[in-house]
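Support request, please re-run this one:
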Amino acid sequence: MRTAILVGLAGLFLCSAADRPMAAAAVSDVGTHVTKDDVAATLAALAPKSGTEQIMRMVNAGRMDVGVAVMRRQPGRQGAVMHDSLIEVYYILSGSGTLVTGRKLENPTPMDPQGRVVKELAGPSSSGPSIQEGHSQRFGPGDTIIIPAGVAHWYSQLDSVVDYLVVRIDPDRTIPLK
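Re-run finished. Output below.
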């Protein structure tokens, strides 16, 4: 009888703990610092004349993981993307263009769950050629753009190469820590 009660209490404890944030001991007590030199070195290491990205840091921030990446986009045709649960904040370092955002991704196709984008960069996502009935906004150096989860985003026009920082907020912890 005591064993059954202990097993029951252990089960209740485990179920209640699943809804609590991760223990503070797993979160850094010193923070994470990404310097401008880190950003410059990472940008310099990106493949020239290609659209690419590199996650610099992805850390446990308590209830969710938060990361910083640098991205480079080249002028030319871009596709649209929508992340299921990932929130992104862009800070434009250089370049300009037009970003379209909205919830109507044209011909949405789920991205390969075993591919690099899903496994290493953005978690479950869909892509499509464009966004229907979206909101167009011009952007340039110094601008900040917030992309909520479930909102498609698409560079409909790039005037030049665009380099930007991306802060990724990952509540489902789908991106590996770095």
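The chain has three helices and eleven strands. The mean pLDDT is 85.
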